[in-house]
Amino acid sequence: MEVSVVVPVYNEQHMIKETIDTIKESFKGSEIRYEIIAVEDGSSDDTWEVLSAIEDIIIIRNKKNSGYGYSIKKGMKVAKYKNIFITDADGTYPNERMPEFVRYFHDNNLDMLVGRRDRKNIPLIRRPPKAFLRKFASYISGFDIPDLNSGFRMFRKDYAIAFSKMLPDGFSLTSTITLSFFSEKLDIDYVPIKYGKREGKSKIRPIKDTMAFFHLIWKTVFYFNPLKIFLPLSILLFLSALGIFSYSFFKLEKVMDITTIVLLLTSVQIFCIGLVADLIVKRGNI
């Protein structure tokens, strides 16, 4: 068993050493071969100085703040093992459980294993949009997704690299990789974890990042399963045309033929576009 642990780091001067020490201690004496790759993302505090003093890790430094997703992708590229484990540097995730996750991942021959967070330390203001996004993503993928964007997960490097062109540079990377794996019907499992209280200030921007999540969910569904969008929209327009026709015929005694025809034609066009898009996706997967 082997794993490359990738830790994106930005302004975590107070927590990064503790995070790395916890990871090292968890693997100490185990049968698991591992490496730790810390990607310093242009911090404005003393994170780089603290990281530089830590031994037996690989350190990558971005010239400027390039984003959470960018840092993870950069870490994946230099990873020497075929499995990747990502975690945060802020003390919220149970890094001491990494060996347990690696064994579970290996024993069950999984493609991705995700830590499903409890909601205790997730801020109340972020819970409603997170729940809605999770429900929407579950509909799009056709699977129940217990946790869309947990940052504590292990996955196969080859699949992640295959999806890398569509993985964003920001915090939405975890959401996108979740949808990508589910859409490709890969073997995924969830294990409950405790989600600790964050030390320091969160880097997430609730409104902007939530809108980015929606954009990426739409982008992902068009990439993997376009009929999930085109078919319901086509049916909605068809039913609207039928409703308008029936109402105008029976109530107004004058058929709104132009409106009805426009809606029907639009419905057929959208359905046909969906079929073509679905055919392109399926042909690309052959």
TrEMBL record:
Domain Glycosyltransferase 2-like: 4-159
InterPro entries assigned to the protein according to its UniProt record, in alphabetical order: Glyco_trans_2-like (IPR001173), Glycosyltransferase_2 (IPR050256), Nucleotide-diphossugar_trans (IPR029044)
Keyword terms of this UniProt record: Membrane, Transmembrane, Transmembrane helix
Keyword DNA-binding included in the entry's annotation: no
Record Pfam families: Glycos_transf_2
Protein name from the UniProt record: Glycosyltransferase 2-like domain-containing protein
TM regions (residue ranges): 229-249, 261-281
Domain of life: Bacteria
Keyword Membrane set for record: yes
Organism: Muiribacterium halophilum
